[in-house]
Amino acid sequence: MLQYYLYKFGQFCVGCLPISLSYKIAVFMSDVHYYLCPRDRRIVKNNLKLILSSQERLSYLAREVFRNFGKYLVDFFKVQGSLSDQYVRDYVTVKNMDYLTEVLKNQKGAIIVTAHMGNWELGGCVISKLGYPPIAVALPHKERSVNDLFNAQRAAEGMTIVPNNVAIRECIKGLKRNRLVALLADRDFNSAGEAVDFFGKKTIFPKGPAAFSLKTGAPIVPAFLVREKNDCFTLIFEKPIFPSENEHSKEEQIDMIKKYVSVIETKVREYPTQWFMFQRFWIE
Prior knowledge:
Layout: H1 2-13, H2 19-36, H3 38-51, H4 58-78, H5 85-91, E1 92-95, H6 97-104, E2 110-114, H7 120-129, E3 135-138, H8 144-156, E4 160-163, H9 167-176, E5 180-184, E6 194-198, E7 201-205, H10 208-216, E8 220-227, E9 233-237, H11 250-270
Helix pairs in contact: 1-2, 1-4, 2-4, 3-4, 10-11
């Protein structure tokens, strides 16, 4: 898999190679992965077919997905763990920060919902540098050395990493202390999500963000760190999604899920080559 080789490359290049050269090597390795792994290539193309309005540049855009993912991994190894305030000022544009600061005035915390797109890992670190270190729920990687490396990189920037087996308790405690809880909301890992429409077809989305919001009163704030053409980034906060003050029901939970899924769909449509979904996604 591309990830394995880029993990090894990342460990080599940190502190050794300039980031521009690291990007070039990552792009080359991503192209090799694209051409030599027909299964992954087919899955990405099938995903894009539902997203794109035209299929004319399907192969080119699918290859860009692989390339952008390679760059994402370079960013993780080159930038995270040594992220400076100067880097954030020079390379990150922040939009709609007031959405976050305003909801935190209610002292109920906030649930940051994002997706496997752009650079969600770096996004959490940037939010930390802005003064709001989040609690992040992280599924363990199957290789312990990789898992330890990722968690060390995240923790170095002030994030609190919570394993999924204690996530509910720790997230609720954090929200009660007016903390941010960061959740990836575009892939269900425990087969306990809800089936909703995404680009016109049913698929399963996690219900954790909606459940936390309804239980604690914390609003959901969608946020995405996306890559620009010059390899700088834009951190975009979207309008908060507030839970109803009425008695909570199954229908209300599903309605909240649909709301943040709609935001994710809009962002995926806007940045289709930055959505890194290498698994079959829709329900057949």
